[in-house]
Amino acid sequence: MSTYMLIMRGTDESNAAMMASIDEAMATTRTFIEEMVTAGVLLAAEGLDDPARGVVVDFGGEVPVVTDGPYGETKELFGGYFLLDVASKEEATEWARSAGRRLRAGPSRSTRLPGSRGVR
Question: For the chain: N or C, fewer Cβ within 10 A?
Fold first, then answer.
């Protein structure tokens, strides 16, 4: 088994649609999470707070510069993640596809965590 992180990105359109029907979006997300738990693949899942509450630490110069959020363009932000313990890249990809369709998310990324079997 390998650990993969599914990083969920929103678009302006998908975020607006989610906020317009937040109760439905939360119910769909809960159902999806329950399915991952039942399948035995979910290790962790979190949604992220409003980017305006974050900071950026930029190491581009000699001295790091800290800037209060919001930061970056919408396409640079992600709204949450799922950490999965799956048998293959293909299985992680299927969960990512399902998440994108069902949660009406924007593009998502599935990334393997190297050496992840020893991390819990």
Answer: C
Tens of pLDDT, residue by residue, the chain (120 residues) = 899 999 887 777 777 777 788 888 889 889 999 999 999 999 999 988 777 788 888 899 999 998 887 666 555 667 789 999 999 999 999 998 888 888 877 667 788 888 755 444
- Tell whether pTM > 0.85: no
32 three-class SS: helix
**Cα–Cα distance measured from residue 70 to residue 83, given in angstroms and rounded to the nearest whole number:** 25
3-state secondary structure of 71: coil
Spell 68-95 as b/e; 16+ CB within 10 A means b: eeeeeeeeebbbbbbbbbbeeeebbeeb
